[in-house]
Amino acid sequence: MKTPRTPFLYQLATAGVGALLLSAAVLPAAAQTTTPTQPPAGSVPAAAPSGPYTLQRAIDVALQNNLSVRQSQLSAELSEATLRQSRLSQLPTANASASQSWNYGTNVDPLTFQFQNQTTRANNFSATAGLNLFSGFQVRNTIKRNQLDYQAGLSDIEKSRNDIALNVASSFLQLVLAQELVRANEARVNSSQQQVARTQKLLKAGSVAESNLLDSQAQLASDELNVITAQNQVAFYKLQLAQLLNLPSVAGFEIEVPSLPDPDDEAPLASNPEGTYQTAVGMMPEIKAADLRVESSLRGTEIARGAYFPRLSFGASIFSGYSSARIGRKLTGDSTIVPSGFIYQLTPTGPQAVPGVFAGILQPRFETLPEGFSSQVKNNLGKQVQFNLSIPILNGWQARTNVQRSVIGVKQSELRAEQTRLELRQSIQQAYADAIAAQRRYGSAKRQTEALSAAYRNAEIRFNNGLLNGTDFNIAKNNLYGAESSMIQAKYEFIFRRKVLDFYEGRALSL
């Protein structure tokens, strides 16, 4: 059994901004992220406009430049051409042909059908026309099927645009998140540098042990490493977003960081995935495309059943030809008397020939010449009209087999449509669950951060007074950093899940 394909939106919902680690020890970029589903590449990429990119501007540029959208558009144009051709197939057909041949040696004259032994040139001209009068409604059903396929292709374009928009939104939020991580880590480095300076003064004053200074310097080195790692993350996500936009270079590419509200500033997310699903079913292009392909497969069944019916067609043709071996006679203007017998007279003894007197016939003289091209074409002109009726009786059960195949194709299309709906329902349910969990996690992480901030301030005072060793102080500091990272991660995860739900409900992607 074939494993069902994971929905694209579900992949985004489960591996979006949450895939970016926000702890103090950030993993390398290559270990955290994957490349876009369909990284675009163009032979003539658009030049990067000046100024920072908003999310809407980035989506617009991606839709204009991305090759997967262009490919979907070309597929729809191909379906449109197929539809146009099926409509034109209702018109009569007309064809003309001409040929010229040379015959050597013994051959049959193509016009006189006589054997001859000479070199002749022959020309044949014909024009035919035909009209399909009835073919089991196959032409009409083919037109309807191709029209449904064309409409499904238009829905595929819209789906491709939606996929690109969601990809851009995901990468945009990841880049915003990475930049915030850089700022947070730089603040930690600044705090660690101040702590090292204070520890050095305390060490000179004899208030703390040298191990405290070594612990502070080790913490500073770790924080500086995290800054470099976070900056690498920014470069990676900037490159990923620029590739989605199909820009020729990342140089000068910047985004406009939006002002995003905290999740606890919004009302708790109401859990109504069924209502969102009902809204999405009526507007998602992949659902419409799946339903259209079910109707198309039903038309394919009607086309296959059309092979059971007789076929009636009408045809007409006109033809003529020329042969260099054909000859004609032409009067010369002269005549001759050809003797035909004696003149008789009646006598008592019976009929007697008159001496010296003969009877004759006046016969005109002819000149034998090859018949001209134009006169042969005119004289050899022939016409034909015919009706053709074909009644299927037994053709190796081909018609029945084709019908059975088309019925199975209908069932497959229905299963694919049902699978598409199932994937959509599961994606919405998962997005709701993740959004609610992220909102709750943000509130918990915020309270944890507030508590750990108070504990860190207390630990800092004790450390500066020599009442706490460096190891315990760094643990308190890293606990605070970890809580802050968890809070930021939950914030952006909630924002992304909420935007996915807004998308399912028909609202535009915006920050």
UniProtKB/TrEMBL annotation:
<keyword id="KW-0998">Cell outer membrane</keyword>
<keyword id="KW-0732">Signal</keyword>
<dbReference type="Pfam" id="PF02321">
    <property type="entry name" value="OEP"/>
</dbReference>
<feature type="signal peptide">
    <location>
        <begin position="1"/>
        <end position="31"/>
    </location>
</feature>
<dbReference type="GO" id="GO:0009279">
    <property type="term" value="C:cell outer membrane"/>
</dbReference>
<dbReference type="GO" id="GO:1990281">
    <property type="term" value="C:efflux pump complex"/>
</dbReference>
<dbReference type="InterPro" id="IPR003423">
    <property type="entry name" value="OMP_efflux"/>
</dbReference>
<dbReference type="GO" id="GO:0015562">
    <property type="term" value="F:efflux transmembrane transporter activity"/>
</dbReference>
<keyword id="KW-0813">Transport</keyword>
<dbReference type="GO" id="GO:0015288">
    <property type="term" value="F:porin activity"/>
</dbReference>
<comment type="similarity">
    <text>Belongs to the outer membrane factor (OMF) (TC 1.B.17) family.</text>
</comment>
<protein>
    <submittedName>
        <fullName>TolC family protein</fullName>
    </submittedName>
</protein>
<dbReference type="InterPro" id="IPR051906">
    <property type="entry name" value="TolC-like"/>
</dbReference>
<keyword id="KW-0472">Membrane</keyword>
<keyword id="KW-0812">Transmembrane</keyword>
<keyword id="KW-1134">Transmembrane beta strand</keyword>
